[in-house]
Amino acid sequence: MADAVVDYDEALTRYDPVMGFEVHVELNTDTKMFCGCATVFGAEPNSHVCPVCLGLPGALPVVNGKAVESAIRLGLALNCGIAEWCRFARKNYFYPDMPKNFQTSQYDEPICFDGYLDVEIPAASGDGTETFRVEIERAHMEEDTGKSLHVGGATGRIQGAEYSLVDFNRAGIPLIEIVTKPIEGAGDRAPEIARAYVATLRDLVKALDISDVKMEQGSVRCDANVSLRPIGTEKLGTRTETKNVNSLRSIERAVRYEISRQAAILDDGGSITQETRHWHEDTGVTTAGRPKSDADDYRYFPEPDLVPVAPAAERVEELRGTLPEPPAQRRKRLQSDWGYSDLEMRDVINAGAIDLIDESVAAGASPAGARKWWTGELARRANAEGKAIDEFNVTPAHVAELDGLVKAGRLNDSMARQVLDGVIDGEGSPTEVADARGLELVKDDGALEAAVDKVIAANEAIAAKVRDGKLNAAGALIGQVMKELKGQADAAKARELILVKLTS
Amino acid sequence: MTDYTRLTAAQLADALASGETTSVEVTQAHLDRIAEVDGAIHAFLQVDAEGALAAAQGVDEARAAGEPLGLLAGVPIAVKDILATRGLETTAGSKILAGWIPPYDATVVTRLRAAGMPILGKTNMDEFAMGSSTEHSAYGPTHNPWALDRIPGGSGGGSAAAVAAFEAPLAIGTDTGGSIRQPAAVTGTVGTKPTYGGVSRYGIIALASSLDQAGPCTRSVLDAALLHEVMGGHDLMDSTSIDAPVPPVVEAARRGDVSGMKIGVIKEISGEGFQPGIKRLFDESVQLLVSRGAEVVEVTCPSFEKGLAAYYLILPSEASSNLARFDAMRYGLRVGPEGVEHPSAEQVMAATREAGFGDEVKRRIILGTYALSAGYYDAYYGHAQKVRTLIARDFAAAYEKVDVLVTPTAPTTAFKLGEKLDDPMAMYLNDVATIPANLAGIPGMSIPNGLAAEDGLPSGFQILAPATKDERLYEVAAALEAALHDSWGAPILAQAPALAGKADN
Hints:
Helix content of chain B: 25-40%
Distance between the termini of chain B: 13 Å
Oligomer: heterodimer
Strand content of chain B: 5-15%
Low-confidence stretches of chain A: none
Structural class of chain B: alpha/beta
Number of domains of chain A: 3
Radius of gyration of chain B: 22 Å
Strand content of chain A: 15-25%
Largest sheet of chain B: 11 strands, mixed
CATH superfamily of the largest domain in chain B: Amidase signature (AS) domain
């Protein structure tokens, strides 16, 4: 049975949403957090395991130094303090996919604490962007669990399953969990800010090159906490935690849904149950998970098998020197370099195309051309097929080459799109596709002129309109000329020729 | 013909090096001895005759080929069943691990193999090393070779009894609160708990991670030093392992010179509450050291009286977490709950842990789970850690004044099997003198210092040194051992009764 919901805009007239996010980022280290096993994704189940990550009796963890440095770099980029001395802690609970029945994590001594991340959202005025600051409570290191596969049930969840399989390849993969402070003051922008926060964090992690940030593979996983309080009150309402919301669009939708759902309960005089909730992508709703209390007792205590992590101050400063340009600053610089309008830049950001355009331009594409291909053609296809724009077998080098072919006058737009089809189908580079498919603009002016003359003669009525100054009518003639030349004509040239013949 | 089971490891090493005997012969002699007496002692849970003889033959061949070999190459050894041994069943004395064949070796075992030491088998112990008598072994108790109706100490009673009964010249033990030293004391053998981090814990099934430490069980001080040197040293697989060379223990054991050393007697553990015979022997041993040139100083360690309480919070807390992995999901025992047709994973976990753990293990898991619970953590675990710091400070202050500290190892000689089984507190009190070293991470050693007048059973003398100064243990122990041998005319085990099956003398 579907939960009652209140219209979102109406809910916001009475309630003030407060959010909080826990984002887990899988690091791209070569080896696991506490052992030497490889971290490759998609390998044969239980093929990357050892006594340590299987939790065999007697095995001991050893900290992956690269993972610690990744955590410190992320902390610095999030404007956090870096602990001079901190420990791992054991989070004790029983679950079949957790080899030791405790997770080695951090508790009251996180490696990074007290930071912030500025996120940009479109300005309320509709003009330009505005900045919203999300305060970061902490970022800490931990290991991932194994992965359960529940077989035989209808839902893929444990309820109703006949049996379950566990793959421990994921057990021990290094994670950083980034926890925000309560995000207040978002008002009706809450869902947008939620999305912008995760997107900005994702971009930052990507720029740091500490994760492959593939949300669809679970390398970035977001839990969204939402609560409502009556407008004008201070006390935080009871929150729900929607687990594993794993796309930017879903984050926005899930927050929006929770606001509407909780408002309905509160309007009815009910109270919110503190619980985890599951997000359902298909129906766009959340459903109840397990009850959760603040006093969930994980019996944390400092991990006695590991020595404290005490990064030297000089090393932290060295790492600070390796930080990339902050994404927001980089975006401003690129927008100015590329000469994009605010609106164009927004489309580029929304399409997640900044890096691709940057690389395309570096490979020789014009900024305008690169933008057109990535946020126009490829983003359209991505939307239609539910893919990411970088999943089409098309590289920045391809885009640069394609753009070059258009600029050189070898291809027109429609031919370039056909070439792109070929590239996507794996037929080779744009030049190879164009050659193989025999796509080339007619360069022979004589052939073009003959076609123009033929079309004018055959369409006297339209030609007369053009002569009378109705220049728009020339379009119909251009179309005929293109048809005559099987699409391989330069439309601009054809237009020019038609106008010369009919109006001068 | 020489009975090679009666020689020390150092003597065996000489006989092997000189070509007087072979490792196969020595190993076979010990396997024969095990076959004869272990029915009465039950020191071993597993005997690996095949593996031991194969290793022995390998060493003999290497020696014949003139390959460079370690000092103890060819000398067989027994290993406590808490160390993972590749291909050889490892149970930690628990039913829950019955049949578990580790796919890997503990670092200590790797080092024994690399040193060419044939592994005779796995020795009995209290389940998961929880106990002071081996009566908590799921596979039945070990019997003290001095008196078969008495306990051999614990948890490493199997290792100590194997050495005392001449079933093995050497054994590996582990010591979390006295599990090497107290069995040594009650069986008339030598046992060392090295500095925490001095010997790798990798592959040793964890009881309490911050307290556990493996060490040698032997019949002589020099043997302990030789084995300590093989076992010890930095290991990249154990983050808490000390990145420094093994202290010069063999040198110290060969020297045994206490002249000018300051030896501290701890006011709080100087004999009060100890069996009279043990107290008398302790005082005599101190005087023997004085006669060899040491100076005796009384020191006070006021926090020690809180040590036992702190220990019994820290140990169960860590153990409750370390033992969580025994859940039937990946290895070991699996038991389905009775009368449940399609049990959940959680039900199988619960049923398996109910069936697979003994009472003492359950008692400590419950204690530890409680002590770590939200709302109790500060009062119990947190507070115990503070006591631990205070004890370390007491030691630090004492070592400002003295080079080593000495105490009786255990308050009583071996008690009778069953005597304290239903009184956990009485059992726990056995460890009162040994626990502080584990809490502070310092090295400790027990050597036999005589037979108590009232019952004729062995007594132990404990030496404690500052962290990483393990060589001081051996310096003092070797001096005392020499003085005692002078007065006895032979090692103490010469006075042990003969065991059934073979005339010992």
